[in-house]
């Protein structure tokens, strides 16, 4: 059973609409839940964490990351999305064995926790066999992070003897749903990541129906480049399949009509500004999505090319959108997009997007103690000014001193607890070396551009003068 904790004397950013921030507040945690918040709580018999000079806030929530790709970190600093697809999805993914998926997922989940991410949507689309699925799940479970394990239905670029048909994948997801992931209150829960909807529609529909039969949240890559046919959102709407259980990732080329459809259905969007801006996936949809009334969240996506923490994502999201609006205005009289909106995207709105809004995403009595402690006494946060804005505009992952998931301290005083980081590193390095050797080395990675059309509809591959930049 989790210990009783009293967090004492911190600046508390609650991220909660009904609970104001506290310039100097205490938080009582019992059985993994926040049971009281206020000034100078008087409680006996609990462990006290003195936090003068520190800032406590809800744990961050990353709603889109391919955690298995962690061993590929840094390979794609200059990749476009076509380079990424050729290198990672076509070439490298089939070279990942279960032990490599495990090493990557564990290292990536720990990286996220270390950076203050207490909840993660792991878009796990490197599942070539049941053993791959088990390995990814095991990596998440070993890390102590809270996660939606979004089981990827994508078939990969090479045939899988374990999964000759899509139905074999559905059956494997059901195996997990009826076994280790049968609970919707576990620390790791099941979700489904759909194949990109550039396959026969009958299969896309079957994937959605499979997920709905399992009763789990669904996520999908959506409109990340211009395609020739109807959009994913249009197809889903035609069949009456839109719903609040859908989390659409990217939507950079979604028209305003599609955004209105998502808003009307109660679905959510995840923008991944760093990978979108780099790789040529259009302009992040954030400003348009918010104006359309869509719940909008942020993800790190791909550490093969970019960073794996959400402070950078918040800053990029905010300032790129402001930059675009300001450039249009000339000399703007006000900034429409507020820093505090970014914070909400990576906390409460992200929790709502994956059906966890009642249990996590903000600090209030009755919710899980998923929280982080930032060194607000560090030079880059001194003086603190407006605490909420400082989290978005001044903080970085190095300021994350302590992390608590469900009332369990998993990082304290700058160190992950109970984790042999050196051993995790070694496993990730071995995985990197092994997969690169299997594909014939770095020079072979970009050789398969010609095969991309076999797997994806790349449309005309070009934006019109306005699409994606609205
Ligand atoms: Zn992705």
UniProtKB/TrEMBL annotation:
According to the entry, every stretch annotated as the Amidohydrolase-related domain falls at 55-410
Q: Which UniProt keywords apply?
A: Hydrolase
- Family matches, as Pfam families: Amidohydro_1
- Where on the tree of life does the source sit, at the highest rank? Bacteria
Q: Does the keyword Hydrolase apply?
A: yes
- Molecular function via GO: hydrolase activity, acting on carbon-nitrogen (but not peptide) bonds
Which residues are listed as membrane-spanning?
A: none
> Can you say what this protein is called?
Amidohydrolase family protein
């Amino acid at each position: 059973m989790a210990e009783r904790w009293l967090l004492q004397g911190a600046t508390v950013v609650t991220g909660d609409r009904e609970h104001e921030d506290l310039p100097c507040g205490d938080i009582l945690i019992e059985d993994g839940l926040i049971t009281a918040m206020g000034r100078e709580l008087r409680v006996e018999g609990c462990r006290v964490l003195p936090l003068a000079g520190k800032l406590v806030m809800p744990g961050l929530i990353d709603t889109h990351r391919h955690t298995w790709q962690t061993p590929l970190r840094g390979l794609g600093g200059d990749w476009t999305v076509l380079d990424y697809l050729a290198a990672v999805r076509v070439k490298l993914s089939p070279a990942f064995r279960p032990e490599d998926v495990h090493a990557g997922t564990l290292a990536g989940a720990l990286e996220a926790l270390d950076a203050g991410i207490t909840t993660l949507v792991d878009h796990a689309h490197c599942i070539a066999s049941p053993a791959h699925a088990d390995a990814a799940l095991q990596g998440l479970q070993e890390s102590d992070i809270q996660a939606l394990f979004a089981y990827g239905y994508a078939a990969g670029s090479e045939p899988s003897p374990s999964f000759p048909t899509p139905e074999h994948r559905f059956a494997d997801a059901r195996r997990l749903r009826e076994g280790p992931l049968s609970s919707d209150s576990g620390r790791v829960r099941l979700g489904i990541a759909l194949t990109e909807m550039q396959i026969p529609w009958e299969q896309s529909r079957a994937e959605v129906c499979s997920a709905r039969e399992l009763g789990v949240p669904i996520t999908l890559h959506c409109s990340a480049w211009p395609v020739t046919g109807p959009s994913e959102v249009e197809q889903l709407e035609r069949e009456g399949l839109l719903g609040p259980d859908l989390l659409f990732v990217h939507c950079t080329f979604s028209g305003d009509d599609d955004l209105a459809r998502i808003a009307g259905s109660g679905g959510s969007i995840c923008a991944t500004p760093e990978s979108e801006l780099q790789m040529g996936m259009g302009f992040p949809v954030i400003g348009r999505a918010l104006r359309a009334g869509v719940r909008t969240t942020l993800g790190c996506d791909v550490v093969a090319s970019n960073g794996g923490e959400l402070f950078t994502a918040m800053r990029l999201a905010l300032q790129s959108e402001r930059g675009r609006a300001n450039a249009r205005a000339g000399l703007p009289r006000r900034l429409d997009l507020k820093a505090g909106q970014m914070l909400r995207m990576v906390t409460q709105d992200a929790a709502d997007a994956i059906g966890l809004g009642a249990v996590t995403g903000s600090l209030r009595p009755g919710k899980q103690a998923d929280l982080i402690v930032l060194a607000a006494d560090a030079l880059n946060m001194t003086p603190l000014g407006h605490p909420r804005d400082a989290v978005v505009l001044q903080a970085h992952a190095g300021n994350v001193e302590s992390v608590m998931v469900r009332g369990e301290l998993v990082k304290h005083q700058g160190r992950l607890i109970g984790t042999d980081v050196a051993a995790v590193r070694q496993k990730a390095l071995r995985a990197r070396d092994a997969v690169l050797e299997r594909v014939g080395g770095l020079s072979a990675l970009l050789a398969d551009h010609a095969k991309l059309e076999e797997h994806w509809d790349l449309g005309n591959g070009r934006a019109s003068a306005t699409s994606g930049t609205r």
